[in-house]
Amino acid sequence: MMNKEKQIENLIEDLDGKIIVVKYGGAAMKSSALRNCVIKDIITLRESGADVVIVHGGGPEITALQQQLNIETRFVDGLRYTDIQTIDAAIMALCGKVNKEIVRLLEKDGQRAAGLSGIDGSIICCRKQKDPDLGYVGEITKIRKELLLILLIGGIMPVISTVGIGDDGLAYNINADTAAGRIAAALGADYFITISDVPGVLQDVNDARSLIIEMDEDEAEGLIESGVISGGMIPKIRGITDAVGRGAKSASIIDGRVPHSLLFALSERVASERGDALGGRAKFVGTTIIGRKREQDE
To answer: Taking all residues of the chain, what is their mean pLDDT, rounded to a whole number?
Structure first.
């Protein structure tokens, strides 16, 4: 059985030059202890020679700011409706408070980072979403990666908030899971990791032992259709499957409530790709979605 220290040592040796996109959210963003773990893990990845891109949302921060500004929070079928006041609040909360806090923490620990929104350099191009109509909510039409590549070549870590620019020149809120997946695909990420508040995909939501370690895109869609994957997990899993389908090499969802789960998940994924036997795998690795098996077999 490989001990954790050896796993991390082997991981660091294997990540030089790899592109890793991290979708950062959930408890790992709210808890200061977990937030520090994530920042330390990201710094370890960066110091190992990996190129890291962070993508984040921040729904709770938008809601909190709306309350401070006395802006009504409206939902349509459980989805946030973004009117003109709300998109202004989203820009302030996501591009300002949340984004700059992440950059500040990275810079404090000696990492060069640049806080961006999807509007900067037209990184996230979109059009108004019409079905359902949620106001200033957009659907992605294109990811422009040039600015991200320039920053990565210069040794600067991009930190991206998911507000996009529409073909009408207006700002639109974008689902962070969807945006992260599209960015990972555009960059051909070696590893796309979604940090969430669940162990991964569970066959039975009431049984953590039913964790599905690995599945392909078709299997993931089947679990959505059958209702095994439901609610807020649907956009997360569809963001991951979309990333794989569009060119990301590996995509996983992991439990951000476990300290240093990012490093453990990546080390175990690398070890799995080598064919190494692992101990405690299910506790850390979450669920990885791979390309369709029928395509791999051809």
So the answer is: 88
Domain CATH for 197 = 3.40.1160.10
In the block, residue with structure tokens 């979403």: 129
Closest by CA position to 182, among listed 148, 215, 153, 216: 148
**Residue whose pair of structure tokens reads 């073909």 in the numeric block:** 167
Distance CA 262, CA 29 (A): 13
| pLDDT value of residue 165 | 98
Q: In which domain, by residue range, is 50 found?
A: 4-297
Specify the pTM.
Answer: 0.91
Q: What is the β-pairing status of strands 157-161 and 113-117? A: parallel
pLDDT at residue 287 greater than cutoff 70? yes
Q: Token match 């476990």: residue?
A: 258
249 neighbors 187 (Cβ within 8 angstroms)? no
Rounded Cα distance, 172 and 278, in Å: 43
Residues belonging to the active site: 23, 26, 59, 177, 236
- What pLDDT, in 10s, does the model give residues 45-61? 999 999 999 999 998 99
Question: How many structural domains comprise the chain?
Answer: 1
